Amino acid sequence: MQHAAPLARLIDALRALPGVGPKTAQRMAFHLLQGGRDGARTLATALTEGLAAIHRCKRCRMLTDSELCSICAAPAPASARVGPGRRGNGRSRSRRSSDNQHPTRGTVAMRPSPQQVSANRSAAFREPVRA
Predict the structure, then answer these.
(1) Where do runs of H (alpha helix) occur along 54-112?
(2) What's the pLDDT at 123?
(3) CA atoms of 29 and 31, how far apart (whole Å)
């Protein structure tokens, strides 16, 4: 079936969405144009505003409306600051599930590199120097 050119463009645009095939795109287009015109206008406005305001966080590349996302902009909690000269509190590094979804503060991102692991292992087996 041949569709009018604007309808065909709408169907093709909807097919660009993940998981949307030709039949689903056609159903969505018909729904938006037949009975859901207010919803279609709301969708068009939200998409236009989103395209103008949303971009990638400069640190982690998550989508945000500011230079840094809310997670990168927030200071790290004191318990997460374990570095040279500091010791951890002895507890595991488990975090809330929402933290695990952020690329720079998730448990995967917190794992040490293989070089750090081997350096830590070799340091643990060294004999203390006695004066």
Answers:
(1) 70-73, 97-100, 107-110
(2) 56
(3) 5
